[in-house]
C-alpha cells in the first residue's frame, strides 16, 4: 500500500483481483496434476469446472477483500475492522461455493447438476455485487477528490 502506483482506492480491488487470479492459477495447476489418474473424461470435466468456477471464485472473493481495503482508505479509524470484515465476507463466499459443490457432487460421472446451477447462481450474484462495489468505490473517490479540490480552491477571508 506504500507503493506510489497505489494512488487510488480502486487500485486495491484491481490488485487484489490480480492476486486472486494468480492464486487460482497455482491451485488449478495443482488440481490438474492430482486428477490425471481419474481418467481423461472425468479429468476434463473437473478441469473445465475448476478453470471457470474456481478462477472466477477467487477473483470475486479477492475483489471483495479489495473493496474493504479500499474503504479503509476513506475510514482510517476503522481500517482494521474493514479489512477483517472483507476477509470474513470473502471467506463466507468461498465456503458457500465449496459447500454447494461438495453437497451436490456424487460419485464420479453421477453428480447432481444442482451444485453446478447453485454455484453458478452464487458466482453471478457475486459478480453483480462486485460490479456495484467497483462503481461505488470510484464514485466515493471522485466525490472525495472533488470535495478536497473545492476546499483547496476556496478563498480565505482574513477580514472578520
Walk me through what this model shows.
- With 160 residues, the chain is mostly helical.
- It contains four helices and no strands.
- It has one domain (10-144).
- The termini are far apart.
What's a quick, concise take on this entry?
With 160 residues, this protein is mostly helical. Helices cover 79% and strands 0% of the residues. It has one domain.
User: What kind of sheet is the major sheet?
Assistant: none
The ordered H/E elements are HHHH
Total strand segments: 0
Number of domains: 1
Features:
160 residues; mainly alpha; 0% strand
Helix and strand arrangement:
Layout: H1 10-34, H2 40-74, H3 79-104, H4 113-152
Helix pairs in contact: 1-2, 2-3, 2-4, 3-4
